[in-house]
Amino acid sequence: MVAVLVHTSERRSHLRTVGERSTLGTMPRIDDQRYLSHHQYRTPERLAARAALHARFGIGPQGWWSWVFDQLELRPDQHVLEVGAGSGSLWRANRKQVPEGLTVVVTDVSPGMVDEACTTLAGDARFDFATLDVAAIPFTDATFDAVIANHMLYHAPNVAEAVNELARVLRPGGQLFAATNGENHLRELHELIHIAEPRYSPEAVRNGAFSLENAVDVLKSIGPAQVRPFDNRLWVTETEPLVNYALSLWDTEGWTDAPAVDAMRALVEERIRTDAGIRITKDTGLVVVMKAVDCAPSPTGTMPS
Fold first, then answer.
1. pLDDT averaged over the chain?
2. What is the CATH number of the domain that holds 130?
3. Residue 274 class from Cβ within 10 Å (0-12 exposed, 13-18 middle, 19+ buried)?
4. For 214-254, how does the pLDDT look when each residue is reduced to its tens digit (9 = 90+)?
């Protein structure tokens, strides 16, 4: 895939191509790039349905976007790359806290998402935009002080290749911030979906290629990594937001007219009526790794600048 830089003055139209729908029991793979860019993330709606559940029913000291932003500790002179940025939610939620003088390239594999981010952050000179493949980032070595990969590395067909690219464009001493989920993330929700439709497999949405359990090992080529857990859980007291979340997953929107939708709605309504709400585990966090600084003497015997 060829990367195309898109500046705020060069807004693109949404893709009209619609990816192939799957049927029950044959959900697309989490790393299917055509499916992700042309269907699941072609527009922000499915991602927004999932974000809405977390925003409305999350319980914890801090919301996700503000917590992630605080972990970054950005400085005015830094150059930042975000891959898999979606519609730019991180920057929209924290726009007032973004330092003046910071430069951020907001990117995604989906042109529709980049278009939405461009609209959201229009007129702000701190931001540029690009549609790109994380396996072929069109920037020179050591360009960025920080790279952010928010819940996206498990979408890469070859995670090691993607990690190598992120490390390549990161400056020595720069940090990669990679968000992902653990094995227990939203466990109760996936169990509910499976009860409503036994052909649904929670394994289809697991993050095995890059998860909290294996992230330190996956990123060890860059340097020692630190896992920072996000302290939060869900207490859901309304039926439709939970059903909408389920229907946004890859790829359950084919259930729209299926008995599984009614079965799940009835199941959620009964649980809420009985227990006043549904508790759902959140097992997510940020993995932070600093790229090592090469301190070896240069051939002339002087330290590299």
1. 84
2. 3.40.50.150
3. exposed
4. 999 999 999 999 999 999 999 999 999 999 888 887 555 55
